[in-house]
Model the fold of this input.
Amino acid sequence: MRRENKEKKEQIIFSGIQPSGNLNIGNYIGAISQWVKMQDKYHCIFSIVDYHAITIKQDPNLLRQRIIEVTKIYLAAGIDSQQSIIFQQSTIPAHTELAWILNCYGAHIADLNKMTQFKTKAGEHQETVSVGLYDYPVLMAADILLYNTDLVPVGEDQKQHVELARDIARRFNNEFGEIFKIPQPVVRKDGARIMSLLDPTKKMSKSDDNQNNAIALLDSLELAQKKIMKAVTDSGSEIEYDLENKPALSNLLTIYAILGNREIPRLVKDYRGQGYGKFKKDLAKVVEKFLHNFQEKYNNISDNDVRQILEEGRIKAEALASQKLSEVRKLIGVR
Done:
């Protein structure tokens, strides 16, 4: 058992979130809460991926604010800067330099043409959106490969990008030798994809125009309660977990179970015959309690604390990234 734990601790986790939009309980359940649990088992590196955010135009002042905000959210959720590296992506030039090298060695136009996230975000404007939006999966590959990453915790919608990173790493390795580790995606099974409160066919998004679709981590308790009470339900009145026939209710049950530390079968049993009204009122209380505790921690973190943590993280991340980039430069002949 001790040997197994040691081997796991030697493995490296890398993941990050863009500082755009309002981080919500879907981001917390599907990603951040998972990261917190991984800290005791793995060497964890978590980034605020601000260069990914600018693939869509951002207000500069708001972007600066959100970089601080996302870092505070990491910390309030339980990510420990003494255990894990927390850093701002743009402060490490190796990310963009390696992305350019991978554009030239390993990434193919055919790969990027298959990326469903680009097609979704660009919609009917694929010919006029920024090249960055089209190419950002290669930057994501660079983010991952710089740190000898073993595992990448992602949502289901980002799994395709990790697969691309794997393909790029293999192609580079085939040409130059075993320089990059081949990373594995890790997708949380329960609650990996929290859906919109108003449309259970769509993922709960931090960039949705209608913010009633999501409960932001920094929403007021009153607003969060209103959003839960307005959340759509399915036909009938029985509390059942059935993704095919009752997707809206199943989504609410998942939120209740994870934020309230309950089991879904037990919830179904406890609410048998009580109807949606009682269930949603109790769910609202669970969400309120979670947000109250979370925001209390968030509000106790100062901007200066964040700046210090990001600088400490930059120093640690840069040491790792510079070493890997130096090896890559030598292999391709520019050093």
User: Anything to note?
Assistant: Residues 152 and 185 are 5 Å apart (CA to CA). The mean pLDDT is 92. The longest strand covers residues 12-17. Residues 303-332 form the longest helix (30 residues).
